[in-house]
């Protein structure tokens, strides 16, 4: 019961911010959509990349110690994407909307604080490793899927490699390897900027919820189930293969049980790739996390 209350304490503020965004959008109507375009661009090009960079550049992040967890995170995301592709074909969903959203879990603004609550301060570094693994898959393969099949919008491999998110990951990993600390004032300033991306993304999701139709709620329910269930299935397979420690194993299952990331909606909005359906998957998925996150922790601590 105490674990559930802690999870509720993290998830409830998420829905409060989404509700505020929704209420503001209802008040302002169409004018808010134009205003949010610039906000979304700043979030994707500046704030979110800084969030990833500061997570990697933090002095308590140990790249070598978390190498196996990074591998596990990569395989969970790739395996979930493959299973999601099969489900999308079966249910006749657009794979560009469904598959990337199932690949990228909410391992940043939900996974990081949950890991600290479940494992203490020592749980932050492994959670960052898993967050980076998921981001690496999404901002390479995931974005390639989202942008595929569009005239004039195909994303080349070079554009992906030099995107703000990939560059932030590259610089962050380099900083983790060479272990050269940033000046405290600079790091704190960057951290404040990066942390600002989380409430902004949630607020933007609330704005988009005014356009969600009944049909979008149907795909939202499917996505809310597929994302954690495919992740947990792949984690179960890896559990018998990778020599993880007890805490690493529990972190892997927590990561696998997380819902779709809010950032998926931001990308869908940018590419005009059924953002209403992606918003529904993210919203309902985060609500379903009240059940799936405790399940992931229970399995993770079960052995």
What structural keywords apply?
single chain, 303 residues, mainly alpha, Na+/H+ antiporter like fold
Hey, roughly how much beta strand do the residues contain?
A: under 5%
Q: Determine the number of helices (DSSP H or I, runs of at least 4 residues).
A: 13
- Please count the beta strands (DSSP E, at least 2 residues each): 0
**Overall 3D geometry?**
globular
Radius of gyration of CA atoms, rounded to a whole number = 18 Å
Content-based structural category: mainly alpha
Which regions are unreliable across 5 or more consecutive residues at pLDDT < 50? none
Average pLDDT works out at 84
User: How helical, in percent, are the residues?
Assistant: over 70%
Major sheet attributes: none
What string, H for helix and E for strand, traces the elements in order? HHHHHHHHHHHHH
Number of structurally distinct domains:
1
Using the 3D structure, state the CATH architecture: Up-down Bundle
The CATH class label is: Mainly Alpha
The name of the CATH topology is Na+/H+ antiporter like fold
User: What is the terminal-to-terminal distance?
Assistant: 20 Å
């Amino acid at each position: 019961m105490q674990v559930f209350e802690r999870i509720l304490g993290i998830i409830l503020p998420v829905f409060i911010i989404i509700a505020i965004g929704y209420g503001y959008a209802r008040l302002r109507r169409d004018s808010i959509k134009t205003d949010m375009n610039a906000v979304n661009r700043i979030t994707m090009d500046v704030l979110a990349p800084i969030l990833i960079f500061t997570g990697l550049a933090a002095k308590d992040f140990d790249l070598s110690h978390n190498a196996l967890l990074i591998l596990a995170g990569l395989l969970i995301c790739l395996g979930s994407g493959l299973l999601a592709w099969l489900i999308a074909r079966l249910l006749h969903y657009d794979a560009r909307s469904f598959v990337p959203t199932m690949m990228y879990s909410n391992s940043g603004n939900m996974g990081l604080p949950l890991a600290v609550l479940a494992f203490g301060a020592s749980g932050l570094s492994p959670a960052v490793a898993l967050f980076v693994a998921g981001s690496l898959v999404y901002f390479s393969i995931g974005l390639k899927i989202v942008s595929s099949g569009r005239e004039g919008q195909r994303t080349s491999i070079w554009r992906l490699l030099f995107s703000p998110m990939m560059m932030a990951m590259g610089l962050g990993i380099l900083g983790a390897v060479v272990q050269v600390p940033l000046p405290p004032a600079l790091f704190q300033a960057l951290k404040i900027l990066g942390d600002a991306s989380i409430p902004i993304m949630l607020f933007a999701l609330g704005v988009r919820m005014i356009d969600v139709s009944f049909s979008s709620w149907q795909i939202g329910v499917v996505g809310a189930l597929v994302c954690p269930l495919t992740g947990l299935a792949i984690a179960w397979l890896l559990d018998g293969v990778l020599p993880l420690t007890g805490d690493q194993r529990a972190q892997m299952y927590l990561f696998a049980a997380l819902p779709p990331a809010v950032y998926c909606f931001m990308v869908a909005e940018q590419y005009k790739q059924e953002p209403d359906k992606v918003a529904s998957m993210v919203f309902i998925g985060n609500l379903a996390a009240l059940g799936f996150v405790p399940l992931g922790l229970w399995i993770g601590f079960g052995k």
